[in-house]
Amino acid sequence: MQKLLSVAIPCYNSQDYVRRAIDSLLPGKEKVEVLVVDDGSTDDTYKIAEGYAEKYPGIVRVIHKENGGHGDAVMTGLNNATGLYYRVLDSDDWLDESALMKLLDVIEEMTDPEKAADLIITNYVYEKVREGRSHTIDYRKTLPVGRLFDWSEVGKFATGSYILMHSATYRTELLKSSGIDLPKHTFYVDHLYVCYPMINVSKMYYLDVDLYRYFIGRDDQSVNEKVMLSRMDQQLRVNRLMLYNLNVDPIANKEKKEYLYYYTEIVTLATLSFLLRTGTKENEKELESFLDEIHDKRPAYYKWIMGRPFYRHPIRPLRKLPRWMSYPLYRASYLVARKHFGFN
Question: Which of 31, 120, 317, 330 could disulfide-pair with 169, CB 3.0 to 4.6 Å?
């Protein structure tokens, strides 16, 4: 019998928290395939995962590989997945048990091809554990709840509530046929993971449950501000892949195309905000150079950004307002966003 859901857990030196991630999936029992991808760990991650595989041989599988980075581990999980649907769980995060069971019930109904969605969307929760607070991202104002729908029924996404890896459960066959190829040794490939297959998504289903618990607080975490600022080269690499490698412009469906335009803009906004956050003249020049590059390499997209109102297109003021005004405004807006969403 085919598994309903394959969940890949990319791991690198995750001995201190991988148990919680695996344990959160075990309530799904034989309906779930847990793929622990050990990405060349040098601690006891592999030993811990092997212990689970021995105890739960029909549920947990361990894949050991040379270190290739988060994206490479995600791809390894996908290549080994046998479940009807596939999702990723980072090793320091976890899934809510009640929400997982509801997701599996929905997927069970989707074993009928007539009822199957290309993408199942669920909520995720920023868990600021050290501060004892959380922040939930949901899609109740944007998507129909509890039924299949297509792009014509998708509303406007609020800034900060786009469909991320944490909220996406893809039909495995669609993912494998999408041509997705995440670069090795690169952080922040989550955006590519979501967008590559999104081009082929037609039918969606929004299950309004708080499934994914996104841990915020580790000093070495990839979303820690200091870590992100030190990896601007990787943020720029992913941003450029989204801008120039995703074949978005030929999409005939207006709503889908606009969503992917907006999503790319949000990632670009993050890049620009981080460049400004450093406060160096060098990175301010990098910002202006990057915007010039977008203008030259993707003029239609640049025109789209600059031709829309400020409130929907926050990049536009960087070119329409003087720098003495726009740069401090962006730095202040970033701090507000960091406080609201719980970045480190």
Answer: 120
